[in-house]
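Final report, closing paragraph on structural work. Over the funding period we assembled a curated collection of sequence-structure pairs, and we close with a single example.
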Amino acid sequence: MKRTKLILITGFVFSLYLGGSAGAVTWEKSFDLGLNVTQAAYSDSWTGGEEGQVTWVSNANGLFTGKFTEVFSLKNTVKLSFGQTVSQDNETKQWSKPEKTSDKIDIESVGLFDFKTWVDPYVAVRFESQFLDASVATRKKYINPMLLTESAGIAKQLLKKEKDDILTRLGLAIRQSIDRNVDDPENPGGIKTVTATDGGVEWNTDVKLVLADNLGYTGKLTAYKAFYYSRKDEFKGTEVENYWKAIDINWENSIAAQIAKYVQVTFYTQLLYDKQISKKGRLKETLALGVTYKLF
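Its predicted structure, as stored:
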């Protein structure tokens, strides 16, 4: 596991280095930084139970696509997000400690082969985590939990025109998860690290469309079906024995409108379904107005 993560990080950093070099590799690069802030406060004269809030979310999104040869290209995607909210008590008007509202680390590297056939092979590595695990207030952990997905299979470029891009992939995948913040029943008050590995089939579709000069859409749909789970024996005879066999879904959609040089409106939705976490789907929706800056 450590070796795989080292390969992922080393490969990604090396590809960025190549992107800045003057070598034969042709790179297309984009990286955006964003900050959204909303604020509301009330004086003591308000009597309707109003509660002030300050919410901030910072985002960083990058895409680095390099063509190494006529038949091989590497596509690196970076999605980072972190945000917090502080609330004002409606009676005392005192402000609370910051609480996390947004947290994401999503780095993916996809190697694509172009043999001019109807479908072509690909290999991919994806690392997902969060900056701060605050699930237990008394013991916060950084970069936890972690999920590493390694996959290989066939890919089809459904659309490739100027700035529009639709790529779909289907392949075999192995996922490795690590949680370093789990209660240890054999050591009261202690914690332990729990690891799990599963293997199955993964389908990914990435969409990037320019709808107008100042309007764009980005979407990603991931579906994963496991056929093997390393911890399945621990759940035999329980209600959740076969939950790991259910298909996991992650569907993200983002529409961004650039209304001024550094001002952007973004509407984002995410639908998650993982039966081992919840029998119901989890929906996240945000509408944000904030400042954005394109590094390149």
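Confidence is low (pLDDT under 50) at residues 16-22. The domain at 2-294 is CATH 2.40.230 (Outer membrane phospholipase (ompla); Chain C). We thank the funder for supporting this effort.
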